[in-house]
Design a protein that fits this description.
The chain is an alpha/beta fold and 256 residues long. The protein is built from 7 helices and 7 strands. A 7-stranded parallel sheet has the order 3-2-1-4-5-6-7, sandwiched between helices. Helix 1 packs parallel to helix 2, helix 3 runs parallel beside helix 4 and helix 4 packs parallel to helix 5. The chain is globular. The chain starts with 19 loop residues before the first strand and ends in a 5-residue tail after the last strand. The relative contact order is 0.13.
Length: 256
Amino acid sequence: MTLQNGNQAAPAGHEPRARRVVITGAARDFGRTLALFFARRGDEVLLSARNLAAVEHVAAEIRGLGFDKVHALRCDLADPASVRAFADGIATVTDHIDVLVNNGASWLPGEDLASAADEDIAATVASTVTGTVLVTKHLLPLLLKSDRPDVVNLISSAGLTGNHRTQAHAAFYAAKHGQAGLADLLSPQLRPQGVRVISLYPPDFSNPDPLGPEWDTAPRGAGDQLTAHSLVECVMFAVDQPRDCFIKAFHFEQTS
């Protein structure tokens, strides 16, 4: 449903306890969508982006909806010092986090290797792979202080072997495969500590403005393009499962 002003009650018989949720890349697109919906559930959201003004705008949108448990922080995922400062900033706000959403990544288009500058290739790989590794590393101590820690990775179908349908540069494919490899390793490593590692591999999907009327009118039939609405519901479904339920990955049929 479209977000509206004011607090809204959870569905009858389903009132999940509020979480503290960190979302990277939260200034736009699906990161913003996730931020709005976690906040709407009553969760405290800690949002990051490379552009502080942009993520502060999203925080202001959330407060305008009547939810004040929101924090905006700067984090350049390609810069290890920035990631460390971001983690230190989170630790000054809270003594634990329940959900880390690794959403931030740099999109890089290009039909061949020569179509992108070296600097753009390096930034894509660094923000997507190195950034995900470092954010997870530095926030893991706060996750381990939660009684329901989840790491959610928004990867891409570009991170799946044999997928060549996304019109992205090879460096983007390489970066997403790096994220997938990290998730595959961390899932069994962290399970004994109660941390669930949940990865989503969506194809290209539509992301209408969740504050606009098109959010509720976008077609969601069997032959339609995957929507951000459905992706949000997958994320919420996964984190709401009992702690004996470890959903490792969501894979989606690509129809176009």
